[in-house]
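input
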Amino acid sequence: MFKWFFKQVREISKDPRGFIKFGQITFILLSWSVFMVILIYFIFVPEEVNAINISLTVVVGFLGTILGLFFSEKALERLNERLYGKDEQLKENKNNYINFLKELDRIEKNVDNIKSKK
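output
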């Protein structure tokens, strides 16, 4: 069972979006489990606690989790765009540099040919 679980986690984590969704599901399940533990605790240990406080706490936790992961996904997308943009720019600069060196080599050969003719 553990092998299957970790195999699934590795499959999900290959894609950045899958990793974010996995994190989102994990946080939601964690929030629900904490909510259930608190609810069961207050069922068996009767104290004066307003149920709306617990519910609002859980709702705020869900909203915070979802919004945080949504914005982190957007930030990850922008980061990928920047990295791919820089990668393309570096490739272009490399090609320009190689072409410049070839041109210098050609000029050097022409100068050597002119010197040898004298």
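quick obs: The radius of gyration is 30 Å.
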